[in-house]
Amino acid sequence: MNRIITLDEFILRREKDFPFATGELTSLLRDIGVAAKIVNREVNKAGLINILGVADSENTSGDTVQKLDLYANEKLISCLQNSGECAGIASEEDETFVPLQAVGKKPSKYVVVFDPLDGSSNIDVNVSVGTIFGIYRRVTDSNDSCQLEDFLQPGTELVAAGYVLYGTSTLLVYTTGRGVNGFTLDPSIGEFCLSHRDIKIPDSGRYYSVNQGYYLKFDVEMRRYIDHCSDMNLRLRYIGSMVSDVHRMLFQGGIFLYPNTRKYPNGKLRLLYECNPLAFVVEQAGGKAITCQLQRILDIHPSELHQRVTIAIGSPLMVDEMKEFVQRYNPVIVGNGMM
Ligand code: AHG
Ligand code: MN
Ligand code: MN
């Protein structure tokens, strides 16, 4: 039997990859692992207690908030606050960023962005949901409280990012820019154990994932590309939880799309909390992530915390093919130099 490597042990071993590491990033990743276990426990027993359903409020982006979203948000913040290794957080569920107090030492160099619960519409029907996170090194003086600029950094500046998928089993996948590794929660010992080492996305795949119900609301180049996917007999899979849909593409190959629609002219998904962390993971696994206007996701300089972007993410050959459709059917984008 292979020796089990726990998430904590793996993170500690990797610390030596960073020549000037002080252990802060290591602790932060471990805190996120702890929060993931707590959220997992609640997701698993959500049907037993009164935390299912809608919390009768909307988040700052105008989406309906489910009770478990709020619970996950609180747990992540309190885990990061208790350890004192995080200078501040920005969450999909909070209108503005939240500075965190240092615990008995100088403030941390890092801030964390997250979508505490992704795919909330799935909760009531027992379908997979996830947590997405990204960690940035601060750009302002770490002796002071964190500032908005610390969060408004392009994805190229992420020092770590990942996601937790609460599925048939619970999986934590993360990268620090040196490949992608996955850890499955063993409930019998309460530990995330290394189960997927150095994950590589297939160059191409048989799946495409898009809300095809909005087909008529998409621009012509997207409709032509989706027609092409269908002509090629690709299989359509759409769970409605970006984590779950992108996770499938990461392991089986394929492309996930969320283009602009009339309701969401800039796309629905959030750059900081959803697109950047998943783009970092997918690129590290050998995939690509661009907007439907052909800009690399990680290169975008955010102008606001809750900025939305369009996205095409997944196997590199399939993202390249989508790009060809945009170039063929939308000369305006090509003319604007967005490629
Ligand atoms: P969240 O639950 O964090 O608000 O995210 C839901 C997102 C994303 O996970 C999913 O891909 C997308 O919304 C689904 O949107 P549609 O229902 O418009 O397809
Ligand atoms: Mn989400
Ligand atoms: Mn969410």
Layout of helices and strands:
Layout: H1 7-15, H2 24-44, E1 54-58, E2 64-66, H3 67-83, E3 88-91, E4 98-99, E5 110-118, E6 129-137, H4 148-151, E7 158-166, E8 170-175, E9 180-186, E10 191-196, E11 207-209, H5 220-231, E12 235-236, H6 242-252, E13 254-258, E14 269-270, H7 271-284, E15 288-290, E16 308-309, E17 311-314, H8 316-329, H9 331-335
Parallel strand pairs: 3-5, 11-12, 11-13
Antiparallel strand pairs: 1-2, 3-4, 5-6, 6-7, 7-8, 8-9, 9-10, 13-17, 14-16, 15-17
Bound molecules: 2,5-anhydro-1,6-di-O-phosphono-D-glucitol (AHG) and manganese (II) ion (2 copies).
Question: Can you give a write-up of this model?
Answer:
This protein has nine helices and 17 strands. The strands form four sheets. Strands 4-3-5-6-7-8-9-10 form an eight-stranded mixed beta sheet, with helices on both faces. A five-stranded mixed beta sheet has the order 12-11-13-17-15, sandwiched between helices. Strands 1-2 form a two-stranded antiparallel sheet. The protein starts with 6 loop residues before the first helix and ends with a helix. The model has no long low-confidence stretch (mean pLDDT 91). The site of 2,5-anhydro-1,6-di-O-phosphono-D-glucitol has 11 residues, from β5.
Q: What features would you highlight for this structure?
A:
single chain; 339 residues; alpha+beta; Fructose-1,6-Bisphosphatase, Chain A, domain 1; D-Maltodextrin-Binding Protein, domain 2; 2 domains; eight-stranded mixed sheet; five-stranded mixed sheet; 9 helices; 32% helix; binds 2,5-anhydro-1,6-di-O-phosphono-D-glucitol; binds manganese (II) ion
